Structures are given as C-alpha cells and as structure tokens.
C-alpha cells in the first residue's frame, strides 16, 4: 500500500469549508479542470450527527492522451467516493472505488479540517493499494512489482489533483461573491 499524504489550506473559515465540501461538492465540477461531473447518488443523515454521502466522479475524457483513447473507455474515467462526514470533529472518512478495477484498487483515508485563523487547514491521510494480480494481462509472477509501481505512480499523479479540489472550492467561493 502507498501512503497518500496532503497538507493544504483554503482561505475561508473551517465551518464554511467543511459544509461546502459536504453539501455542495456537486457544484464544484465547473471549477475543477480535470473533472467533468460530480453526482451525488445517495445521502444519509446518521443518528450520531454524521452524514454518509456516495458520489460518482467522472474525469474529462479529453484529458486522455490521444494514443490511449482507443484503450481507455469513458466508464474507466469514473470512481465512486463514499464519505462519512463528522461535524463533531470536522473530519471526513472516505473510501474510493474505481469503476473498472473494483477488485484491484482500494483507497481509503480521512480528511481533517482545522481552524487556521481565517483559513482552514486541510490534512488528507490515506492509503492506496493495487493488487495487480487482478488486473487483466498482468502475469502473476510480476504482479507484486507492478502493483507497487502503479501505487507509487497513482499517488504521485493524484496528489496535485487533491490540492486542485481545494483551489476549486476557492474559485467557487469567489464566484459566490
């Protein structure tokens, strides 16, 4: 498993940032350059004050390099995010499921939102695992090495995108003024 670790901040108060991520994430897609859509599939308010939300994210197909377009289908560009938002400690536990490699890729973690003056500190801690033996065409003999290499590559690739979501929320706030 590869560790996902991101520290960032958003220049708005914590309660506003937390509530916007929880309740209005679907409205942020226009402010995220690599995202085509974010759609809430379900929302459940739990008895202990937490909220569980399932969203489907879809990346923009034009982001695929032209040489790879005949191999990468549109359904491969989406993932499901199941997040449990806890307003008591301003945290969000999440699990991600990749649409076309559900058995091969696992990702889960927690986001924590802290007060930092008039800004919000955001810490994302998680893990990403790739079981390459469950990816079609990968020989079992080298699956461990392939899985490890893919984990490192994906974490390196998604880390800036996780920060881009924070820039997107700042653009969203600016558009509301």
From TrEMBL:
Pfam families, A to Z: DUF2505 (PF10698)
Domain of life: Bacteria
Classification via InterPro entries: DUF2505, START-like_dom_sf
Name this polypeptide is given: Uncharacterized protein
Annotated organism of origin: Bradymonas sediminis
Lineage of source species: Bacteria, Deltaproteobacteria, Bradymonadales, Bradymonadaceae, Bradymonas
């Amino acid at each position: 498993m590869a560790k996902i670790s991101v520290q960032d901040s958003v220049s708005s108060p914590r309660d506003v940032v937390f509530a916007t991520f929880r309740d209005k994430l679907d409205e942020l897609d226009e402010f995220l350059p690599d995202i085509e859509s974010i759609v809430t599939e379900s929302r459940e308010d739990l008895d202990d004050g937490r909220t569980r939300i399932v969203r489907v994210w879809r990346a923009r197909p034009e982001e695929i390099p032209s040489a790879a377009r005949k191999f990468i289908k549109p359904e491969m560009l989406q993932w499901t995010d199941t997040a449990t938002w806890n307003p008591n400690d301003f945290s969000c536990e999440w699990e991600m499921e990749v649409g076309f490699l559900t058995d091969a890729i696992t990702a889960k973690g927690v986001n924590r939102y802290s007060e930092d003056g008039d800004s919000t500190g955001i810490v994302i801690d998680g893990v990403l695992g790739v079981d390459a033996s469950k990816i079609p065409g990968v020989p079992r003999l080298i699956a461990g090495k392939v899985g490890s290499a893919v984990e490192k590559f994906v974490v390196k690739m998604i880390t800036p995108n996780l920060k881009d979501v924070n820039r997107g929320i700042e653009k969203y706030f600016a558009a509301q003024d």
